[in-house]
Structures are given as structure tokens and as C-alpha cells.
Records
---
Amino acid sequence: MANPRNPNHSLFSLLLLFPFFVLSSSLYSPQDNHLVACGSTSVPALADHRRFFPDSSCHLHSSGATFAVSDPSRDSPPLHRTARVFSKPSSYEFRVKEKGTHLIRLHFYPFSTSDFNLSSASFHVAAYGISLLSNFATSVPVLKEFLIPVDAEKLVVSFFPAEKSSFAFVNAIEVVSAPGDLIGHTASLVKPDQVEIFNGLSRQSFETIYRINIGGPKVTPFNDSLWRTWVPDTEGLGFVKLDSSASKTVSFSGRISYRKYGASREVAPDNVYSTARVSDSDHNMTWVFPVSLGYRYLVRMHFCDFASVTLNQLYFNIYVNGYLAYKNFDLSDATGQLLASPFYIDFVADVGSSGLLTIGIGPSKLSNPSWVPGLLNGLEIMKMNNTFGNLDEQVPLVLTMEDPAFRGIGEFVRSILCGFAFTSLLVVVFILALRLRAELRNTLGWSPLPTDVPGSKLAKGYTVASGMLDF
Ligand SMILES: *[C@@H]1O[C@H](CO)[C@@H](O)[C@H](O)[C@H]1NC(C)=O
Ligand SMILES: *[C@@H]1O[C@H](CO)[C@@H](O)[C@H](O)[C@H]1NC(C)=O
Ligand SMILES: *[C@@H]1O[C@H](CO)[C@@H](O)[C@H](O)[C@H]1NC(C)=O
């Protein structure tokens, strides 16, 4: 941005940038930024100033009819006034200019028209060959967010109606490149008796389950560098805070000191780091989160110590699922001896049969009665893909020939065919290709599992919906 060796230049750049700081904290400009208002004919005006374009300008493939529908009541938020309904498997194809992790946000706002009641839709969603949602249905507004590491020139997002009579829908789609520092390479894997290094974090896919501005107000996409929504840690948002009497909220109006190689403004914005919850006593602060079984979770904890009077007067323990994940954590040491400087820690945790993930901040023996006993500014809980690479697998992802997602495989086979000059080779490859197709036909195809509990999706959707909506 600015040349640090030329102070005049830096000052000039700062002056130039100043109005943008005031308007919005979104200085990050993603290489890929596909914002789609499905079924819309106009560009809706949003509070965060982003421009979502009608999906008529997208590559949309469908094996059946699709319908652009709009909410007859017309008092819903701009992005939720229209939707695209799919009667058969359908896909949007997005060009990827920059490989790496992409944020995919899917907006579902189930209104009702004379032809379609969107809350009766039940469907599956896949992206980049990963099952994101299966047997998904919702009667309340839901925003689903996924982080997918993309290593291809295009990203296909597909919708599959769950039954022949049913249909799928979506109101808006965001496909946005994530900044390189959003997901690091390693995390701390918390086990009952020890903490190990978890490698390959940046190769995992994630679904955001909870994103909380601990001790602070709701942060909307307008005030977030990556257009995220952070909910407050108040009651009624699907999780529980224990011992709330043993803590208090604090806020900071000074300048947050972002450091090079530290947590950046894209990792979490000022609004998250400038509010916190601190313990009031030598009790634990504990939050309990219901999550689905069968997956690992990434727990990202955000810290910024503006509450201590001086450096090295804040020591606390961090517990994940009741296990000691970090003993005597010293935030001053972590930030290279700076106060009001952000820092985050990534933990990976398994979930027991309870289906609950608990996060605790507890007193350290190194602390002193006159010091702050513990602090937390922000918390994100992300579901990680299972060993099959999927994020929701109540229904195995199986594709048939006419499914648009299959076309990618067909193209791949064709491109191999073109590469060979000799007829004999062609024949061999063709036979192999036919075999591959036959095998795929046998192994791929949607088939619901009998274990699926009706309505379970609704409950899950509600948990996220109440917090993650951007209106
Ligand atoms: C953005 O943040 C500022 C400062 O915290 C707040 O006053 C304002 O209401 C927020 N704006 C929106 C649209 O959320
Ligand atoms: C805090 O929670 C941990 C884990 O559940 C427990 O071992 C510890 O004793 C608790 N500390 C206090 C002060 O209650
Ligand atoms: C997620 O998927 C990747 C790639 O398919 C795989 O290597 C990784 O082990 C999976 N993660 C988990 C936690 O199973």
C-alpha cells in the first residue's frame, strides 16, 4: 500500500484512505467476488454497499426447468425478495481467478408464492464435489457459510431436489476469495490427555456454525472486513453461557494495534477486538454449543487485551471440552509485548456423544488477585469436513449422467481422449472411459438413508438462522 521509507507518501496514502475507513472497514478486495441475486432482474441496494447481480448473467446449467420467483409481500430485505427455483438438478458455474480458500455463502429465505411454498422444499447442495447440505429444508431465513479450498479454474455449486415431487431454491449466492492469512496451516488438536499439532488446516473445508462477538454487539457485514455477521453472546442464539454472573463485558475506544504476521483486520474486525468479556472472579467462564456428531470442529478464539493496566498482568487457562488446551496463556507474550493487539488461537476438537462443545476460560495460578482473571473477545466454531471430504452426509452424494455435476467428469474424459493421436490408444482409453462411466453410474446417485430424522434440518437451520442473518 504505502512505502514505509517515504513518510510523505505514507501520510498521503493514509489521507486518501481515510474516507474509506470511515465509510466501512472493508479494505480487502477479493480476486474472485461473485455476488448473485438469484431470480432477480435488478441490482438490490444493500446496507453494506455491495452489488449483487441478477443470475441471468451467470452460467446456470439445469437438467430441467428453473423459475425466477419473487416474494409477493415485498417487505423482506432486498436480497431475500427473489429466489431461483430448480425443478431438477442444476448448477451455477463460477470462474476462479485465484486458487485457494473461497467463502461460499448461500442465502435461503423461504417465502411463499401462488406456485411455490419455498419452506416445503427439501434438497441437497454440493460445491466443488463436496456435499454441503443434505435433505436441507427451512421455514426460517438461513445464511449458510462454507470455506472451501479450491484448486481449479471453476467452482460449480449444485442444487439437487430431494424427491421427484420436490424442488430446490436459493435466494442469493456469494463466492468470494478469502485472504491468504484467513486459514493457517496448523492448529492445536485437543485430546483428553494432551495437545498435538494438527497439520493441513488450509486443506480442509469448513462450515461456519457459530461466529460470536463475545461481550460485544452484533457486527453486520457493513462493519466486517469480509462481510461476515458476528452475533453477541447473549441468550437465545442456540448456545448457553454458564456462570454469566461471574463475568462482565468491557469495551475499548482506542486504536487496535494490528501487527504484521499477527491477526489481521480480515481475520476479525476492530468491532470484535474492541469488546470482550472478562471474568469477575476466579470462576471459569464457560460457553456450551450444540453441534452435530460425526465431525471435528475448528474452534478459533480471538483475544485482544485492552483490559489490563500494564503488560504481563493477564494469565489464564483455556479449556476445550473440559480438557486443558492451553495452560497459563500469556497474551502479552503472544503479541510480542503489546497491549490492545489482536491474537487468535485455532484449536481442533472432537465431539463426544453428548453433541456438545464446551469452551472455557479459567483462572491461572500465575495470576494475581488484582489482575484481570480471564478474557475472550471473539469465538468462531467451524465444522470440518469428514474423512470423505463432505460437510453434511445424511445422504451420500451420488450423481447420475444427466446431473450437471457429472458433466465435469465427462469433460475430463473427453480432454484425455483428445490428447491421444493413435487410434489404438483412443480405443483403449475409450473403453476405459466407458468403464469409468459405468462404474460411476453404479456408485453415484442420490439415495436417502433411512436414518434421516424428519425435521432435524429445520432445528439446525433455526440455530444458525437466529444469529447469522444479515438484516
Ligand atoms: C458499524 O460500527 C459502528 C461502530 O461500532 C456502529 O456505530 C454502527 O452502527 C455500525 N453500523 C452498522 C451498519 O452495523
Ligand atoms: C474450570 O474448568 C475446568 C475444566 O472443566 C476444571 O478442570 C477446572 O477445575 C475449572 N476451574 C474452576 C476454578 O472452576
Ligand atoms: C477433509 O478432506 C480432506 C480432503 O478430502 C482430507 O484429506 C481430510 O483428512 C479431511 N478432514 C478430516 C478432518 O477428516
Note: Confidence is low (pLDDT under 50) at residues 1-26, 399-429, 440-471.
---
Amino acid sequence: MAHIHKRKPWELNSSEETPSEVYWNRRELVKALGLGVVGSIAVPSLGACVLEDLGDLPPYNRPVLAPKLHQPFEKIEKKKSYELGDDRKLTPEEKASKYNNMYEFTTQKNRVWKLAQRYPLVSKWDVKITGLVEKPRTIGIESLLSMAPLEERLYRFRCVERWAMQVPRVGFPLKELIKQLKPLSSAKYVRFISLKDTENFPGQRKEPYYPWPYFEALRMDEAMHDLTLVATGIFGHAMPMQHGAPIRIITPWKYGYKSPKSIVQIDFTDKPPKTFWNQLAPKEYGMYSNVDPRKPHPRWSQAYETDIGTDTRRPTLLYNGYGEQVASLYNGLEDATPASGWNTEPK
Ligand SMILES: Nc1nc2c(c(=O)[nH]1)N[C@H]1C(S)=C(S)[C@@H](COP(=O)(O)O)O[C@H]1N2
Ligand SMILES: [Mo]
């Protein structure tokens, strides 16, 4: 291996302009994940499971959670029903993980991963459950990771900026968590609040005009939809920081900003919630923000998108191709797309 560096990845202190070459070999990774000896990884062999081919963990994607907190990757089941369907191919990991939106680090998509390498190793991560639930409480990440069986799904992903990709997600349906939290019948929305950490998120210092921390929300029935994931991993390993470690929400039929990262609070409410981008630019980013090729963003068309894996353009699909599963959530709702529909309820 060409890029072996002696220091630990989380000890990086190079300047921001220097690409950090962090080496995390397979043996160390497997140890860190608590999987024991290399070669004895038991994974279900359903279809082309990326978990079977763990390989070297790429240097740009080191785990953020301390090894003792690692999720039981050996128990992950590949869900065949979540294949990509059409002729779309998985996006190469390096492309997906070096082109990110996480303004906590920087607004430059191709630099997020570099800054993310320097995020300190996390040995404690709590998620506060608040609002209209039977029992508000704080759940440690280790409990969260074992609240439902982990599964792997291949999902499409579409950013409102018109780039798109296809990636293997690891996690469990949010509905499994919500059922255990027992929201009150008065709860109509679920809010997600990301981490505020001005010490380790340079973007939160350099971009103080953003209303940190990042926050998003879903209607309860959207949150309970089977497609909505509590994502804990990507490409067959734990979530790296640039993708929102240690847990984030994924709603694959919505524009990417509806998939908040690094969540520390889940709040149940009866009031139409505010969201980060809606608060900043209400005419451009709505509550629903479902992918819709017919509804242009006020500043650009949404008819086409660019696949960041192949660098090719293709037509945008309504609901990002998940219409069969989700269209019924929006019956009677005219504007479930950006730029409008903020508080509109189905008739
Ligand atoms: N906390 C937080 N979550 C976030 C963002 C962010 O800046 N901060 N960006 C959003 C946007 S605009 C997109 S497109 C996706 C990008 O996810 P990815 O970088 O893992 O592909 O994350 C979303 N979730
Ligand atoms: Mo985005």
C-alpha cells in the first residue's frame, strides 16, 4: 500500500489545503468494527451484496464512532426488494463520498470529505427524544443501533442542485424506531435536529449566518413510510462523517436536503415545523420537496439530472422513481414540491 501513514486518522492536523491521506487497512477496519478475524465475516449471500466485498476501507471514509460502539455489521440483511430497478448502476464509493453537502464542514462539495477526516473519534452520541411522545428520553447510540435489525438497501438519491447517485444504505426503517417511542395521537410531524459543534464543524464558525444546527422535518405518515430510513451506514460500513455519522434520515423520494445528517434530537410536534432551507429561502425550498421533473426550482429546471458516477444526464423521475410507493401520501395535495406546499394539508 502506497499511502501508509503512521498517525491515526483522527490525529490529522494538516492544513485544510493538504489532502489528507489517511490509511485504514482492512485488518484495522475489521478490528474496529468488532468483526474478529479477517475472512470470517458472515454475511447473507443474497444477490450482489456489497457487504461481501468489504475490501480496504477507503482512506476518505474512516469510521467516526469508536470501535466499541460499532454496529453489528455481520447481522445486516440485504433487502432484495430495494434494488435500483432500472438500468442504473451503483455510484462508485469514491465519487459518492468525495462530493457531499454538509455545510457544517464547508459549502464546497468536493472538500467536505477532507475536513470530515479530522472530526474526532466519537465515544458517546446521544439522541434526545422530545415532544409529543409517551416517554421523552435520551437514547445512547449503542441502544439506537440495536433497536431494529439492520438491513442494506440500494437507494437512488437526488439533490435539488440536480446531481444524483445510487448508493447502498445500511440502517432500519424509521417507523421501527417511532413505534417504540410511542408518539401521542396529537403528534403530526417529526422534527430532526442535527449536531451543533462549532469546535469541530468549521462551517458552523465560518458561516454563522446559517441558523445552526441544521433541522428538518417530516409529516408523521412520511416518517412512518417504509422507505424512510434511519441510516447508520453506507457502502457496507459505518457512516463516515461526510455522510452524516453516526445516524441520519434518508427519504429517497425527496430532494437531498430532506435527509438530515448527524442527528441528536427527534422531536414530535403538532405544529407545522420550520426547516433549515425553508427558513432561509421559503420560495425555493418547501416542506414536502418531493422530486418532480415538472416543477422547476425558481432558478433552474428540474427536468434533468446528472449522475455523478457516470457524469451523464438523464431525465428526472417523479418522486425520484418511488412514485408507486409514495404517491398516495400526497393525494389531493397540489404542491408537494419545492417553492410551495409548506403548510398545505391534503383535503
Ligand atoms: N446536517 C446536515 N444535513 C444535510 C445537509 C447539511 O448541510 N447538513 N445537506 C443536505 C443536502 S442539500 C444533501 S444533497 C444531502 C447530501 O448527502 P450526502 O453528502 O451524504 O450525499 O445531505 C443533506 N443533509
Ligand atoms: Mo442537496
Note: The chain has a mean pLDDT of 83.
